[in-house]
Amino acid sequence: MKIGILCFPTPGGSGVVATELGKELSRRGHEIHIISYEMPFRLGDPVNIHFHQVPLREYPLFPHPFLTIEITAKLVEVLDRYSLDIIHVHYALPNAISAVLAREIAGRVRIVTTVHGTDVTVWGKEPSLQPVIRYGLEQSDAVSAVSHDLKNEVYTSFGLEKTVQVIPNFVDTRVFSRLPDSPLRSQLAREGEKIILHVSNFRPVKRLQDLIAAFFRLQRSNPKTRLVLVGDGTERETAEKLVQDLGLASRVTFLGNRAELVQLYSAADLFVLPSEKESFGLSALEAMACSVPVVATETGGLPEVVEQGKTGLLVPVGDTEALSESMATLLGQPTLHAQMAARSREKAEKYSPENIVPRYEAFYQGVFSALGLQGSTGNPPG
Questions:
Q1: Torsion (CA) 298, 299, 304, 306 in degrees, nearest 10
Q2: Residue 246: count of CB within 10 angstroms of its CB
Q3: Distances (CA, A) of 32 to 28, 90, 252, 289
Q4: Which of 45, 151, 288, 350 could form a disulfide with 344 if both were Cys (CB 3.0 to 4.6 A apart)?
């Protein structure tokens, strides 16, 4: 099939999954065209994937770029030149709207939309935006969600009439696998110290302040621990100030956005995700693939990924005491920690590309089958 993948280029989950999906589909023989306003964070430089950059033009009369229109224009250009079978839209707003407009202009192409989280749980709660998002989803030929919890949110928020299929995120377990001796461990901690890791885009929904407060409490009973924060975003300045105010500057490290995630996960003893809401929790899955137990909040799709008492521990949102106690439990019980580390890897293997990507191929083919058509390959893939 000729598949266009429309996504954001940033390190967030939707952009990561869209990029990795494109790479996997390309390996399976599909012609892949990735469309975004910047080179996606994890795309690299694959010779067998077409990248089409959306130009963000500045107009003196208007303070903001016409993102929706610019995306539409680039999609029309790609459709005219390459005759795509499918546009796979990641994130409903504005991408689904742009895809629908491009189809109106350029002619027949099938649109499938995957919702990832804040397009439903945040923007989808805005009354003025609900009709727009609902229109984009209804006009898509098929819709998927990355967790059962998010699927339910779609129905609750939009009253969608079409079926929403659940296809979870995946992790390349060939790449995300624990290194026996991460070169970063000695750089981040001294001998005998434990490393607690957090990776995110530092938005308010990630509740970094809860993690720092819980770590402050943990220090009383577990002084030989270090907190490593990977990522960047609007909450970084506030988090750095809180670390200073609590006297934790020597115990907390801010690394910014980093590419060597496997080395970082492999250096960690524990991964913590204290979010207000997570539709899936891709960073938790990546940690689990590297045999790192997870402490996370019991919210959204996280309980579908992190099994309570098996691959990690779940706590209520905002309960910093429970968060601290759960971290102390796993760090203080080596046998339990080892069991959860092994189970984490086993659970992550269920989310390998070999298990998930064929479900996307079947998802695409299902759109054509429902219309009595086939993709340009002439045969169902996989």
A1: -40
A2: 15
A3: 10, 14, 41, 27
A4: 288
Note the pLDDT tens digit of each residue in 62-112: 766 788 999 999 999 999 999 999 999 999 999 999 999 999 999 889 999
- Selected residue with higher pLDDT from 341 and 122: 341
Q: Please choose, from the candidates 86, 169, 158, 85, the residue with its C-alpha nearest in 3D space to the C-alpha of residue 120.
A: 158
CA atoms of 238 and 36, how far apart (whole Å): 30
Q: What confidence tier does 378 reach under pLDDT thresholds 50, 70, 90?
A: very low
Same-domain check for residues 322 and 356 = no
Q: Is 219 exposed, middle or buried (0-12, 13-18, 19+ CB in 10 A)?
A: middle
Count the domains in the chain: 2
Instruction: Return the amino acid letter for 281.
Output: G
* Three-state secondary-structure class, residue 364: helix
Q: Which domain holds residue 115?
A: 2-170+352-370
CATH code, domain carrying 231: 3.40.50.2000
pLDDT in tens, 179-204: 999 999 999 999 999 999 999 999 99
Report yes or no: 133 and 123 within 8 Å, Cβ to Cβ: yes
* Distant-in-sequence, close-in-space partners of 72: CB < 8 Å, separation ≥ 6: 98, 101, 102, 105
* 218, 264: one domain: yes
pTM above 0.85, yes or no: yes
Give residue-wise pLDDT tens across range 282-326. 999 999 999 999 999 999 999 999 999 999 999 999 999 999 999
Is 218 within the bounds of a domain? yes
Q: Is residue 381 part of a domain?
A: no
Residues with Cβ < 8 Å from 20, sequence gap 6 or more? 42, 170, 172, 353
Residue with tokens 């938790």: 284
User: 375: which 2 tokens?
Assistant: 């993709």
Q: Residues 6 or more apart from 2 whose CB is under 8 A from it?
A: 30, 31, 33, 82, 83, 84, 85, 86, 375, 376
Mark whether 136 and 199 lie in a shared domain.
Answer: no
Region 206-230: mean pLDDT is 97
- For residues 91 and 253, is the Cβ–Cβ distance under 8 A? no
